Amino acid sequence: MKKTMFILCLISILVIFILSYIIIKQNKSLLELKNSIPHMVIGETIDYFDLVCENGITINATVFNQKQKYKYSVIFILSRPCAPCNKNLPFWKKISSIKNVDAYGIMINSKSEMINFSKSMKLNFNLFCPINTKRFRKAFKIKNKLSHTLLIKSRSVLFAKVGELSANDYFKMTKILKGG
C-alpha cells in the first residue's frame, strides 16, 4: 500500500512538472508571436513617445497619458507619400470631430514635410512628428509606411488598424466611442 502511494505521488509530481513545462513553453511562444506582429494590437499599452507639433510645442507619453485618463484618444500615424493615408483622411477628420475625443496626427517624415502637409490639407486635428523617429517606430511597432489608426483610453489600445480604413472600421470605432 505504501509503495503504491509513493509511486502515485511520483507520477503526480512528474505530471505536474511536465504540464508546467508545457505551459511555460506556450506562454513564451505566445509572447514571441505577439512581439512578431508588425503593429500594435488591442490591449497593448503606449509607454513611450516624444513628439513636436508644427508650432514647436512638445508632448510626451507622460503628458499624453495624464490628459487621456478620462477621454478617448485617436492616433493617426501617417507618412508621405502614402495612398492609404490619403484615403483615410476623411475618416480621420470625422473621428476627430467627435466630442470627448482627442485626436493626434503623427507624421513620421521630417518636421518641414509635416508643416507643408498640415497647411495643404486643412486638418481638424493637431499634427506632430516624432523627435526620435527610430525610437518612435520601435515603440509603436511601425515596420512600414502604411497608415496606422489607433483608438486608446487609459494607455490601452482599444482599436488598431494598419492600412486603409473601411466604413465598417469607422463603425467599430464610433461604437467603442459611444460606449458600446
Q: How would you portray this structure in words?
A:
- With 180 residues, the protein is α/β, with parallel strands linked by helices.
- 47% of the residues lie in helices and 22% in strands.
- The chain contains six helices and seven strands.
- The protein has helices spanning 2-36, 61-67, 83-96, 111-121, 133-139, 167-177, and strands at residues 50-53, 58-60, 72-78, 101-107, 126-130, 148-153, 156-162.
- A seven-stranded mixed β-sheet has the order 2-1-5-4-3-6-7.
- The protein starts with a helix and ends with a helix.
List keywords for this structure.
seven-stranded mixed beta sheet, 6 helices, single chain, 180 residues, alpha/beta, 47% helix
Give a quick precis of the structure.
The chain is of the alpha/beta class and 180 residues long.
Task: Walk me through the topology.
Elements: H1 2-36, E1 50-53, E2 58-60, H2 61-67, E3 72-78, H3 83-96, E4 101-107, H4 111-121, E5 126-130, H5 133-139, E6 148-153, E7 156-162, H6 167-177
Parallel strand pairs: 3-4, 4-5
Antiparallel strand pairs: 1-2, 1-5, 3-6, 6-7
Kindly name the structural category: alpha/beta
Mean pLDDT over the residues:
78
Main pleated-sheet profile: 7 strands, mixed
Give the CA-CA distance, first to last residue: 61 Å
General shape: elongated
Q: What is the radius of gyration computed over CA atoms, rounded to a whole number of angstroms? A: 22 Å
**Helical coverage, percent range:** 40-55%
Q: Report the β-strand fraction as a percent range.
A: 15-25%
The neighbouring-strand order within the major sheet is: 2-1-5-4-3-6-7
The number of helical runs is 6
Q: Which blocks of ≥5 consecutive residues have pLDDT under 50? A: 30-38
Strand/helix succession: HEEHEHEHEHEEH
Q: In total, how many beta strands?
A: 7
